[in-house]
Design goal:
Length: about 1200
């Protein structure tokens, strides 16, 4: 629809309010001016005296974490909140005292490098946010200058009360009250994609009093309204204009960051600015999530701190005793000159000397703690996220959407998921509705079969049968309709044949209702005449398309009318009919229905209503139930087929009845009280009754491509899948069958509140009695279910199915643990009719009850709580908007991509991070223990084994890059084998690669390496001459040799631990060793005042001497032998699952389909879901494997 034609359209009464009328004099407006409703805006007078007293926020918006003034203190505070960084800060400060065994500079520089790198990363991220803020704050908008002219002004300079002119395709700079627009009746179209992700246009309309406002020079008004809040969909206020008071509603509010569409311009008054706007009020930070591995890593750090303090304490006690012996034993350590010693070695003050030694030891042994661990992990996780984002196998070409890791904190958590909690609509299904069947006047129409029906027929082993005029006949798949949203086939209805049906008059009313009862906007192509629709939901779009295709084309909407072209059953020609639109009673989740009140061309007042069966059947009149039984039967059949159903009904209204309703409705709409919505619902309840049933619609929400295959792989990986949906139980169950969550022979434990006792209590209306009986019933059903599962001895598969009403009681504090025990013991869990809050509560129950990693996946605003509650939230960037994506940790376009995200990237990230952390502790313990052993060798005198800069640069330069390369590139198994053998994923779920046993194993390996390096070096170098002059190996030679051995050992250990070598890993491993020799040359060439003990030690002492090379070779091989032997024995005789797959690949059996099938079946148990398990259960009953 072109904007030129739209300007003639009037929409004053399309929606369910009459916004232009002044509020009744006796209306309760006590809320305005009270708590929460204190905002007063002087429109067109932003600088008046009264306005200046009110210190409202400016329109400057900042999303940055820091400012130029706060960056340094806040960023430093963030860094030193980490206990390891704080410890290194304390040791750095102590290094300036005489306690330090090394120079202060060598201690401070590595800390500055590590902290600086993290701060630079934080600064760059915040700078990007700042650039976005600058771009937004400097956008321009036309602001009224008071004399009728407008001036381009940047957004940040806007004030509350300014009048702005926003033009087509511009964003609204603040929250505005709409005054008028380029349309005659002051409507405008708004796109809210930036707020809620919805692409359909919203219709807004000003008050009638300001609709004709064009000359703004003399415009003055006072708006009194609610205080700033985060509710996007509510607004309560009044406007005082020309001594009249008018009520304001959300229909007059234009929100910041939404866009003006299909409207030349609007005038608006600024109400909320900057951080007071609703969109900014909504932009709260998502809950902070940390992976279980990261939390465990903190505990390991604390353990190492304990070890460090223990080593320092033992050494200090020994040192104190030996120092005292120097006095009593005749100066055993004569070389320390105890008679002339200062406090550090004074035998007379041995206890104090021990205390000082304790502090010195804390500084000396600090190398047990890996200073670069945190920053290295952050770098690795960011790079891992880049690989996830750029994986072409998770790119959805149709929508041009790649995967997007919105946070890198949880990468390894992707490899440990125990339970997936999934939404259904838009997540497992497409949320792209197709009209496929209907029931009119008790007759079912539509021959199409859904994916669910095909799965059911396959499950039952029976052919699909069509029931039609010619009796029952086998189904042959018809040619698919080319019309999006319409997949209906029935010759009794198509091509105008419905006019020959027995109840053609009811069919006519049925499709008229579909063509009239909606809020869709038609768009007529001027060249082809083809009509398309802008609808608020896929369901509504499917209904108007179905009506069009079957002869009732909605093509025009005006201020107060809806026009359709329909087939006249008498003449057989198309005729245009116009219905005067009086009110629209909108759909919401509480009402579960929508109605319109129209006047037809004969003058009849009609209420047309469509809604859920749970609310519609009870509203039927006694004489309107002629086809109730048949319709209920058809609705149940449609639900069994996985279809979404709505009931259609109507009634005629008398003039007096409508007049009374309209008065009450207008009064409720103009109410300023907080319970305005309740008042409106109460009024609509009175008119939406005594309806006459027409029939039911059935639309299909198809399974997304690849969903059954993905669920099958996830099930083989041992991951449990729970479905949490708002749909009816029958629909959810059949979707479960279609995607193989349920299978034939699986026993279903159904928990519902349908007992005669509860139904009778509901009729009596005793709320307390109903609640008590319901709770007892749910508890009894859960107890019986647990007994049923216990009696099976894990030989049968169970599915738990529970509805929302029962779930309310199952989540009670005294029942929820029993419910969780039952749910965990079942193969599948489906929660139907679940509210968003219940979804979040179930997620929390599973997360806290199992203490295992939970992943929630959804696509709509109703899934946000669930995504934020789970350990990992996955947002589907589908058609329900972007709220789920904006609240998620990772966004993907299709459910099927979850398979690769978890089984490939999840497994790799978990393995890489686990191995990386273990290796970090290994290399630091190897290095730290050589320092400890040398100090023990030197009678705990506080003498370091190595040069100051050798100590400082170990973690930062010589051993840091190989571990980062491992974290980014290593693969124990290729992506193809990860997907081929899903059970490999259980290594992460069971946490076998980061168990305490494995962690302590790596630490023990470090201790063994340190012992071998130290004792072999000291033994080989100590007793005999080191060079041809007969000189023995001095302290600096021993230190440099040991350090060389440590660098070689830890880098070669990395080479042994890596499963997948790349060029980068070769460069960083062997380059790290080469860098050590280059550093030794360069540092040794410096003056002795700088190089100290390293002065020319390599050139003059080490390089010319063959002994140095022999010792290095012998020590390195000896230190690596224990790990190599252990790894070889484990790989050969006790392989882990990844080791078994590596053997399969090595032996060339990866392409043997029979052998691979046999290996994969190890993951299939009686409780496994998916079509593979279903197929095995059918052909060969599953034994407990």
């Amino acid at each position: 629809m072109k904007s030129g034609s739209k300007k003639k359209i009037h929409f004053s009464k399309i929606y369910s309010f009459k916004c232009g009328k002044s509020a009744p004099k006796d209306e309760d407006q006590s809320q305005i001016g009270g708590p929460g409703f204190s905002r007063v805006v002087y429109c067109n007078e932003p600088d008046c005296l009264d306005a200046s007293f009110r210190q409202y926020a400016t329109n400057y918006v900042s999303s940055t974490k820091y400012t130029a003034a706060t960056f340094l203190p806040k960023s430093l505070f963030e860094q030193f909140r980490r206990v390891a960084n704080f410890y290194f800060l304390v040791t750095g400060i102590l290094s300036f005292t005489s306690l330090a065994p090394y120079s202060a500079v060598s201690a401070i520089i590595p800390l500055i490098i590590v902290i600086g790198a993290t701060m630079v990363k934080e600064g760059i991220e915040d700078w990007h946010r700042n650039q976005q803020d600058i771009e937004m704050n400097n956008r321009k908008v036309k602001v009224h200058q008071g004399d009728g002219s407008f001036k381009q002004t940047v957004w940040k300079d806007l004030k509350v009360g300014d009048i702005v002119k926003v033009e087509k395709d511009q964003f609204f700079p603040a929250d505005l009250v709409l005054l008028s627009s380029s349309y005659e009746d002051a409507v405008c179209y708004v796109e809210t994609m930036n707020l809620d992700g919805e692409t359909n246009l919203k219709l807004k309309q000003s008050l009638d009093a300001t609709a004709s406002l064009n000359d703004l020079r003399n415009f003055r008004a006072i708006v009194k309204c609610e205080d700033p809040n985060a509710n996007l969909y509510s607004f309560v206020g009044t406007m005082e204009f020309q001594e009249e008071q008018y009520s304001l509603s959300p229909q007059q509010l234009l929100l910041r960051d939404s866009k003006l569409r299909n409207t030349d311009h609007i005038y608006g008054a600024v109400i909320f600015t900057g951080h007071d706007t609703k969109v900014i009020q909504n932009s709260t930070n998502p809950p902070s999530k940390r992976s279980k591995i990261e939390k465990k890593m903190d505990r390991i750090i604390y353990f190492l701190f304990g070890l460090l303090f223990l080593m320092a304490f033992i050494g200090s006690v020994y040192f104190g005793i030996k120092t005292k012996d120097d006095l009593e034993g005749g100066h055993k350590r004569w070389y320390l000159k105890p008679q002339d010693a200062d406090v550090f070695f004074d035998p007379n003050r041995a206890p104090l000397a021990a205390v000082f030694h304790f502090l010195t030891a804390l500084l000396l042994y600090s190398y047990l703690i890996p200073i670069s661990l945190y920053v290295s992990i952050e770098i690795v996780k960011v790079l891992q996220s880049v690989f996830i984002n750029r994986d072409v196998h998770m790119y959805y070409e149709e929508a041009d959407r790649p995967a997007h890791a919105r946070t890198s904190n949880l990468n390894e958590e992707l490899g440990q998921v125990h339970t997936i909690l999934s939404d259904k609509t838009g997540t497992l299904t497409c949320n792209s509705m197709e009209f496929i069947k209907c029931s009119v006047a008790g007759t079912a129409y539509g021959y199409g079969f859904t994916e669910v029906e095909k799965a059911m027929a396959k499950r039952n082993g029976s052919p699909l049968i069509i029931k039609g005029k010619g009796g029952e006949q086998p189904f042959e798949s018809p040619k698919r309709s080319s019309v999006k949203g319409f997949n209906f086939f029935d010759e009794r209805m198509t091509n105008g044949n419905w006019t020959n049906e027995k109840h053609s008059d009811i069919i006519q009313k049925f499709f008229r209702l579909l063509a009239v009862c909606h809020t869709a906007i038609p768009d007529v192509d001027e060249n082809t005449g083809k009509v398309t629709y802008e609808a608020e939901s896929p369901d509504e779009s499917a209904f108007v398309i179905a009506a069009r295709e079957l002869g009732f084309e909605f093509f025009k909407r005006t201020q107060t009318t809806v026009s359709i072209n329909e087939l006249d059953p008498i003449s057989g020609k198309r005729v245009e009919r116009t219905y005067k639109l009086l009110n629209v009673l909108e759909f919401n989740s509480t009402r579960k229905r929508m109605s319109v009140i129209v006047r037809d061309e004969e003058g009849k007042l009609l209420l047309l209503c469509k809604g859920a069966d749970s609310v519609m059947f009870e509203r039927l009149a006694k004489n309107g139930r002629y086809f109730e039984e048949e319709t209920i039967e058809h609705v149940n059949e449609y639900a069994d087929a996985g279809l979404r159903t709505l009931i259609l009904a109507y009634r005629e209204l008398s003039e007096n009845e409508y007049r009374a309703f309209d008065e009450k409705f207008t009064e409720a709409k103009n109410s300023i009280s907080v319970d305005r919505e309740t008042l409106i619902d109460d009024v609509t309840e009175e008119v939406e009754k005594d309806l006459i049933l027409l029939g039911a619609t059935a639309v299909e929400d198809k399974l997304q491509q690849g969903v059954p295959e993905c669920i099958d792989k996830l099930a083989q990986a041992g991951i449990k899948l729970w479905v949490l949906t708002g749909d009816k139980m029958e629909t959810a169950i059949n979707i479960g069958y279609a995607c193989s969550l349920l299978r034939q022979g699986m026993k279903q434990i159904t928990i519902i509140l349908e007992s005669p006792e509860i139904k009778s209590l509901e009729k009596e209306g005793e709320k307390n009695a109903i609640a008590k009986a319901s709770k007892q019933s749910v508890l009894r059903q859960i107890t019986e279910g647990k007994a049923q599962v216990a009696n099976s001895n894990n030989s049968e598969a169970f599915a738990l199915i529970i509805d929302g009403k029962s779930l309310t009681y199952a989540l009670a504090d005294d029942i929820k643990d029993l419910f969780l025990e039952l749910a965990i013991s079942c193969a599948s869990v489906i929660c139907c009719r679940s509210s968003p809050k219940q979804k979040a509560l179930v997620t929390r129950l599973v997360k806290e009850g199992t203490r295992k990693t939970t992943l929630a996946i959804g696509d709509g605003a109703n899934d946000v709580g669930m995504l934020q509650e789970a350990d990992i939230g996955i947002g589907i960037s589908g058609v329900e908007g972007m709220q789920a994506v904006m609240s998620s940790d990772i966004a993907i376009a299709q459910f099927r991509f979850l398979e690769r995200l978890l089984l490939v990237h999840g497994h790799w990230c978990y393995r890489r991070i686990s191995t990386m952390i273990c290796y970090f502790f290994y290399k630091n313990i190897t290095f730290g223990f050589t320092v400890f052993l040398y100090e023990a060798y030197a009678s705990f005198s506080g003498q370091p084994a190595y040069n100051d800069w050798f100590l400082s640069l170990y973690n930062v330069f010589f051993t840091s890059l190989p571990v980062i390369a491992l974290g980014v590139f290593d693969q124990d198994v290729s992506a193809r084998f990860c997907l081929k053998f899903p059970l490999l994923y259980q290594e992460g779920v069971q946490n076998v690669l980061f168990s305490w046993r494995r962690i302590f194993g790596w630490m023990l390996n470090g201790v063994i390496s340190a012992v071998i390096i130290f004792f072999l070096c000291t033994t080989a170098l100590s007793p005999q001459a080191f060079n041809k002059d007969g000189k023995i190996a001095e302290y600096q030679i021993l230190g440099a040799t040991m350090y060389t051995c440590v660098v070689w050992v830890v880098n070669c250990q990395m080479a042994l631990a890596i499963s997948y070598f790349t060029l980068i890993q070769h460069v960083v491993i062997w380059g790290g060793i080469a860098l050590w020799y280059l550093f030794l040359l360069a540092y040794g060439a410096m003056p002795p005042s700088l190089s100290t003990t390293a002065y020319k030690v390599f050139v003059e002492s080490l390089a010319p001497n063959p002994m140095f090379y022999l010792v290095t070779l012998f020590v390195v091989v000896s230190a690596l032998v224990p790990y190599f032997v252990y790894d070889a024995i484990q790989m050969r005789f006790f392989p882990m699952y990844h080791g078994m797959i590596q053997w399969i690949r090595y032996e060339g059996r990866g392409e043997d389909p029979e052998f691979c099938r046999m290996v994969r079946q190890r993951s299939i148990k009686t409780t496994t879901v998916g079509f593979t398990a279903r197929s095995l259960a059918r052909t060969n009953p599953l034994e407990d494997r």
